[in-house]
Design brief:
Elements (H helix, E strand, L loop, with lengths): L2 E8 L3 H8 L9 H5 L2 H9 L4 E6 L14 E4 L3 E2 L14 E2 L2 H13 L5 E3 L6 H11 L9 E6 L9 H16 L6 E7 L16 H13 L1 H5 L3 H8 L7 H8 L11 E11 L2 E9 L2
Parallel strand pairs: 1-8, 2-7, 2-8, 3-6
Antiparallel strand pairs: 1-10, 3-7, 4-5, 9-10
Helix pairs in contact: 1-5, 4-6, 6-10
The structure holds 3,4-dihydroxybenzoic acid and fe (iii) ion.
């Protein structure tokens, strides 16, 4: 059967992608950001998954106000990097895993979560920047990726509790797939940031680090944070953190298994307008 080996959590700042694509990663501003992912790139090489289930948000790129799925699973064979206004990032196309994605859709919908099935979509920085941070600049991404898009842009957005419960259903779905695949689940976006209005530029290190502590050791407490607290404490775009709860809800301890092992923790401010946070948790 397939199994979830680890979960990865990381911010997705678009300027990080631009810094890499334009060769600016050694500039003093960016060096400390990329240094925090050196361990992670080696860890990826040493713990190569068969598939990554990548929870991210689309930023009005593939979806617009015309259509706003709360939870959308990418079931296509491939996904092109999106043009976000400056041309698509020069990164490899994303190869999907239609068979596992269709199985997850079947299982999760039958567990009463109404996913939107997406057979064609482009993927923006929300998905490609985490891949770049974890994998560097390869000719091809190291494995197939199932994109799982969450609406955290247009209200109403799903609660952290709903996301955490969805993670539990995704775990059951993956672990009932009848092939011996090692699957990683990634939760991306966050940490504190606000891009608009009078509080633009807001960063809250205390909230971010308390969230990391809770996510590691007491994920049920992290899941109980109401969405208004994310917005008040972590800024309007800090709500992206609910996506981390999907990945955390899919870990073994939430289903009664052993606690995961913390392999890596990193936090850095600033990166563009965002606090960058990053964790790697391995199932034991
Ligand atoms: C920034 C952060 C984001 O999460 C995003 O989607 C766009 C921009 C930023 O910090 O500039
Ligand atoms: Fe974002």
């Amino acid at each position: 059967m397939a199994k979830i080996t680890a979960s990865v959590y990381t911010s997705h700042v678009p300027a990080i992608g631009a810094a890499l694509d334009l060769g600016k990663n050694n500039e003093p501003y960016w060096q400390p950001v990329f240094k925090g992912y050196e361990y992670s790139k080696q860890w990826m090489k040493d713990n190569q998954p068969d598939v990554i289930f990548l929870v991210y948000n689309d930023h009005a790129t593939a979806f617009s106000l015309d259509m706003i799925p709360t939870f959308a699973i990418g079931t296509a064979a491939e996904f092109e990097p999106a043009d976000e206004g400056w041309g698509p990032r020069p990164v490899p196309k994303v190869i999907g895993h239609p068979e596992l994605a269709a199985h997850i859709a079947q299982s999760v919908i039958q567990q009463d979560f109404d996913l939107t099935i997406v057979n064609k979509m482009d993927v923006d920085h929300g998905l490609t920047v985490p891949l770049s941070l974890m994998c560097g600049q390869p000719e091809a991404w190291p494995c197939p990726v199932i994109p799982f898009a969450v609406n955290v842009v247009q209200y109403p957005v799903p609660s952290g509790q709903r996301c955490f419960n969805l993670g539990k259903a995704i775990r059951k779905a993956i672990e009932s797939f009848d092939k011996p695949l090692n699957v990683q689940i990634w939760g991306t976006g966050g940490m504190s940031h606000q891009l608009q209005g009078p509080r633009a530029g807001l960063i809250n290190k205390e909230f971010d680090n308390a969230f990391l502590d809770k996510l590691i050791a007491d994920p049920a407490a992290a899941a109980a944070i109401p969405h208004i607290d994310f917005v008040r404490e972590a800024g309007s775009e800090g709500i992206e953190l609910v996506m981390w709860l999907i990945a955390r809800g899919a870990m073994a301890d939430v289903a009664g298994g052993p606690a995961p092992k913390l392999m890596h923790r990193f936090y850095h401010v600033p990166a563009s307008n965002t606090a960058v946070g990053h964790l790697i948790l391995e199932n034991q």
